[in-house]
Amino acid sequence: MKLEGKVAIITGSSRGIGKTIAWRLGKEGAKVVVNGRKESRLSNTLAFLKNEGIEAAACAADVSIPEDCRKLVEYAVNEFGSVDILVNNAGVGSRGYFENTNPDVFRQLVNINILGSVYPTLEAIPDLKKNKGSVIFISSLAGFRGMPDKAPYCMTKMAQTSLAESLHNELMQAGVHVGIVYVNATVNDPEKRVLNADGSWKPLLQRNSIWLDTQEDVARVVLNMIKKRQFKSIVGLKGKFYYLLQKLVPWFVDFTFRHNLEVIEELDE
Ligand SMILES: NC(=O)c1ccc[n+]([C@@H]2O[C@H](COP(=O)([O-])OP(=O)(O)OC[C@H]3O[C@@H](n4cnc5c(N)ncnc54)[C@H](OP(=O)(O)O)[C@@H]3O)[C@@H](O)[C@H]2O)c1
Question: What's the structural domain count of the chain?
């Protein structure tokens, strides 16, 4: 798919990976609709994109609320006429052992990471079918194998795989492209936070490790996936190496997780 003139909604794009995806798609000529909950952050992102010469609009909406997702898609259609691309990027991470985890943390992650991909997709499907467009899910290496200390996050990222697989099979005949990207730990925005087991928010310190990929690496993979209508993609060599390792020697990966929790901080957000 050529991106020139296409309309793309990127959920959770007021900062971080989503913002960089919006910038990348915009630089390829797409009209982008950025989204997030906090209006002030969204306005700054919109100003940044416009300053880069990108045709952009911003819609504050919470992807865990169905009515907000209807509003988001309607907004894109009103602004730019249609929707060709939906990138389900909004997501939050978690920390803490299962037995210490407040059930509300599970609820929040299910609502944002799973249902927050379901609702916008349901709203956009008529346009995506009409335009033979693309729907992309931003998953994680945590979607390959359950890690200790991150049960809510891993289970929600795994759920995105089955959702993408079902949709891939259901929508292929209609000409809709479905893609899922498995993202390695990525240089994060300083404002990024993850949910602790007790329900409090913990700032994620900016990590400094050779294991990290950049947000541009992720955006490049997403762009390629849309252009070549690929189904599954893993970001970077490190991500691909991890995928193979946990397939070939799962016992070694589990052993390492159990004995060195810091490895997980390095592996994924
Ligand atoms: N960073 C990593 O190392 C990494 C690794 C693997 C996968 N990923 C995945 O990549 C995606 C983006 O991660 P990131 O690191 O860029 O996150 P981030 O810096 O925390 O940014 C998250 C974005 O989503 C928005 N958001 C959060 N909850 C939302 C909601 N309910 N409705 C609408 N927008 C919402 C935030 O804005 P507001 O708070 O204002 O709403 C923000 O714009 C996530 O799906 C994550 O799981 C990240």
Answer: 1
188 in a domain, yes or no?
A: yes
Which ligand 1 atom sits closest to the C-alpha of 218? 10
Nearby residues of 24 by Cβ (< 8 Å), 6 or more positions away: 216, 219, 220, 222, 223
pLDDT digits (tens, 9 = 90+) for 154-167: 999 999 999 999 99
Q: Determine the Cα–Cα distance for residues 156 and 123; give it in Å rounded to an integer.
A: 21
User: Does residue 1 belong to any structural domain of this protein?
Assistant: no
132 domain-assigned: yes
pTM metric for this prediction: 0.97
CB of 140 closer than 6 angstroms to any ligand 1 atom? yes
Q: Among 153, 182, 242, 243, which one carries the catalytic annotation?
A: 153
Where the chain has pLDDT below 70, the residues are 262-269
**Residue 183 near ligand 1, beta carbon < 6 Å:** yes
Ligand 1 and 89: CB distance under 6 A: yes
> For residues 151 and 103, what is the distance between their CA atoms, to the nearest angstrom?
12
**Is ligand 1 within 6 A of the CB of residue 145?**
no
Q: Among this protein's residues, is 242 annotated catalytic?
A: no
3-state secondary structure of 139: strand
Instruction: Give the CATH number, domain containing residue 133.
Output: 3.40.50.720
Q: What is the pLDDT of residues 108-147, one digit of tens each?
A: 999 999 999 999 999 999 999 999 999 999 999 999 999 9
